[in-house]
Each structure stands twice: as C-alpha cells, then as structure tokens.
TrEMBL record:
Protein name: Uncharacterized protein
Superkingdom of this protein's organism: Bacteria
Source lineage: Bacteria, Bacillati, Bacillota, Bacilli, Lactobacillales
Length: 101
C-alpha cells in the first residue's frame, strides 16, 4: 500500500495512506457591519474555525497521492488525523511530503 510521509519543519514526521481519514480546520474572519448612526460605521470581526471532514486522500480520483493531499491542505490552517484528534498539525509547518511505496 502506498503511503505518504509528511515531514514538518521541526523534524517530526507523520505517515498516512489512502485509508487515513483527515479532518481540516479552517480559520476564518467574518465581517459584520453595524450601522449605529448615519456617520459612524463599526466593523466587528468575529473569529471562528470551521471543521471539515473526515476526508481521505483517496476521495479524489487521481493516482498521485501527494497532489491529492496538497489539494486538501492548500487552504486549511490546521488538520488532524481523524482517529487521533488530540494532535493538531499546522499546515504551514509542513516542510516536505514524500510518497513511499
């Protein structure tokens, strides 16, 4: 079975395969405009995280698992392995992704 090894900037590695379920967390800011008077606009930023998943690398029908993983992670701030929610990884801390056969 083909697997991917994700190496983070601190040297830690994470091995996943086609059957590994991942959850994504995307940090978003939503603008709410409050027109309290005709001359004053108050902008309130509410911060939230949205969770998507679980998903697997094989959900997209492409033989290149590295590209599939990049498609999943390109716009997410954080992710975790579905069966191990106690460890959350920052997508921005990925140093390299290798395909291991």
């Amino acid at each position: 079975m083909t697997k991917l090894r994700i190496t983070f900037i601190n040297g830690e590695t994470l091995d996943i395969n086609q059957n590994t379920l991942l959850d994504l967390a995307i940090y978003e800011k939503e603008n709410y405009f409050n027109m309290s008077s005709r001359t004053t606009k108050n902008i309130v930023l509410s911060e939230s995280s949205r969770f998507y998943g679980p998903i697997s690398v094989q959900d997209i029908h492409d033989s290149n698992l590295v590209m599939n993983l990049l498609n999943f992670l390109h716009s997410s701030d954080f992710f975790y392995v579905h069966s191990q929610p106690e460890t959350i990884y920052a997508s921005s801390s990925i140093y390299k992704i290798e395909q291991k056969d």
